Amino acid sequence: xxxxxxxxxxxxxxxxxxxxxxxxxxxxxxxxxxxxxxxxxxxxxxxxxxxxxxxxxxxxxxxxxxxxxxxxxxxxxxxxxxxxxxxxxxxxxxxxxxxxxxxxxxxxxxxxxxxxxxxxxxxxxxxxxxxxxxxxxxxxxxxxxxxxxxxxxxxxxxxxxxxxxxxxxxxxxxxxxxxxxxxxxxxxxxxxxxxxxxxxxxxxxxxxxxxxxxxxxxxxxxxxxxxxxxxxxxxxxxxxxxxxxxxxxxxxxxxxxxxxxxxxxxxxxxxxxxxxxxxxxxxxxxxxxxxxxxxxxxxxxxxxxxxxxxxxxxxxxxxxxxxxxxxxxxxxxxxxxxxxxxxxxxxxxxxxxxxxxxxxxxxxxxxxxxxxxxxxxxxxxxxxxxxxxxxxxxxxxxxxxxxxxxxxxxxxxxxxxxxxxxxxxxxxxxxxxxxxxxxxxxxxxxxxxxxxxxxxxxxxxxxxxxxxxxxxxxxxxxxxxxxxxxxxxxxxxxxxxxxxxxxxxxxxxxxxxxxxxxxxxxxxxxxxxxxxxxxxxxxxxxxxxxxxxxxxxxxxxxxxxxxxxxxxxxxxxxxxxxxxxxxxxxxxxxxxxxxxxxxxxxxxxxxxxxxxxxxxxxxxxxxxxxxxxxxxxxxxxxxxxxxxxxxxx
Amino acid sequence: xxxxxxxxxxxxxxxxxxxxxxxxxxxxxxxxxxxxxxxxxxxxxxxxxxxxxxxxxxxxxxxxxxxxxxxxxxxxxxxxxxxxxxxxxxxxxxxxxxxxxx
Amino acid sequence: xxxxxxxxxxxxxxxxxxxxxxxxxxxxxxxxxxxxxxxxxxxxxxxxxxxxxxxxxxxxxxxxxxxxxxxxxxxxxxxxxxxxxxxxxxxxxxxxxxxxxxxxxxxxxxxxxxxxxxxxxxxxxxxxxxxxxxxxxxxxxxxxxxxxxxxxxxxxxxxxxxxxxxxxxxxxxxx
Lengths: 649, 102, 175
Known about the structure:
heterotrimer; B: about 100 residues; Helix Hairpins; elongated; C: about 180 residues; mainly alpha; 6 helices; extended; quinone binding (chain B); translocase (chain B); NADH dehydrogenase (quinone) (non-electrogenic) activity (chain B)
């Protein structure tokens, strides 16, 4: 691979830029420019800007390409197996690449303000570049093995960034937990890859999809492979039962939560599912399993969001829930709906996290009540943008979330089992409720008697303009611009649904209505569903207003009346307790005991036994050295006699 | 009397008895006596082979003479060693001489 | 002819008596605890061996045996006995393993040697001489086997010097 291609093929250059520049940025920062914070930041942001440009260029150039553009170089060649590495530039991967590039860019710009003054500034940007590199290369991977490798690298970046404040015990624990839990899922993923390799022989994604659709692969292989690969999705996208790492991952800096744990990394699981959607769809059993797990996740996580007062935790549970929603959509056969929701969710969830970040940065607290009391409503830009995001999340017209949720509900309605549609609608209601619970907590705070210094702080922070010109200068605007851009996108993206659908499915924009499963038809049933969803969303908002926003509301929530239920939700349905107990039992009581006993008895005992044997043997044989002449003579004579006998006979 | 094997057997018996004496006796002088027995057994062997098999009878006798001379020298030295050891250990019990134990 | 037969059978009988003396002497030399018995047994045995040398055709060697072994070595041993403390004043504890080991080793060795002796097909040399005279022995000792003669002289010299030195040193050490 020489440098000759550089002027000849701009598409390849763009792809290579995305795949290598952030890595180089990270290497340069870690090795050379660690003490120079501004330089490191510039390198990283510069790299991601170039990547953004390349991604947009690729998207625009290849949007009408009839077939996917693939670049492959042979990597592992072993008898009849060839594993390539390279780039696969088809519609889905380019769309995802753009999403990743845009959000990474916005978050890195935002971090200039948010992480300002932090001692580990360079390290932060190095790891951001690492993440960008890994995520982008994963998105454009042509084969499952390359995808898996970069999937793991993304997990590594997540670990490094969650544990960014490594001096804090909870942060490092959260990083460890995230990595280990996703790793658990990845075991299944890798087994799935092996299944596909053994059963099909080729790990190329396009080839896999095509063969699965044509029915060339044995159905058992497809089902087993799909379920095992779905394990990876369960881990990475925080589905039930591996979902508790995501709320803990909020220990990382807020931009990290915005980038990784809402928009891109956790969406990698959903992306994987859509990437091999034909392969998945070839196995109805795997789809059924995925559908059930997605439903459970969505409902479970929503309930957990009802009772938490931490602003980031609400959005974390919301992310889990929305990911479950996306998985539901894909598992019910709604390819475009799932991808569309992925796109819009990336936009408004990142927006919500970034706005929360501004609040946290101002008030140095995650508690929504304190933010409200501190005068959060007075920060106009974050407040407005957060409300925009929450409206999108709740699925209110005309924000993007409305369109994508409609699409998914349409898919669920087309599914034979209406239970899932019911679950989806219930989920929509719950989503609206908890997101506006947070908004109203901040908008309509309750004044309670506070110690004096809290009031001073509130006054001091509430008026951001009085904090000091330097602070309010570039730091504030670095944080404000990305938020405003994302809010605009959220407002507008929904109206591009048809264009996106046409782009993704390769159809003419006018022909989108043919696929009933995709769009749910345009009959009266469709409008009924639309109306129901809108009513539920508005109803949820109104219910939240009644409980939290109204002047006479107690701001306690209806769950206060069921303390047992509230505790259940607050303890994450005791999942963490269960895992702790299982871990203690299995690992600490079981494996540790076995290994300790093995170490003490078998290994130590073995070595001690050898010692004792040697010493004892020596002692036993030492009688030969009695110093008594006649004993030695006896032995000599016996030996000679025996030798003579042996040779004479 | 006229067969080689008889003499060889007698010589073997002499040698084995001497060997047994060397291994069993605690008295140093007793060991020396047993050694003389062993030498005599060997000498008898030589003479028997000389009588029945050898091409030149004189050569066997010269060898046997040689062995006798060696035996005499060895007895002399052995006795002087025993005397030296006796002066050291005040005893001629061979089991007392265990300086090389271990 | 009958005379030679009688002499032959007489010689045969005496041969076995001599062998008996040899064995008896050897037994006396090894088994009893009394050192004087041992020496006397040795003398008996060596005399018997001298007689056997006669049967084996060498008058010269029989006389040499008596001269050297009985006359010199055994007397030297007697002197040594006189100069040493009697062993029976010590505590004699015979150990079983040692006895068993000794018997075993001797038995094995005896079996080995007799097996070899009986199993081998001993071939006499093609041409056998018949010269048993002392003159020949002396002649050979001074011409062809002169090395033997010289070496034996050397060994005896070294033995004498060694004996003197050994006893001389230890006397100096013990005083």
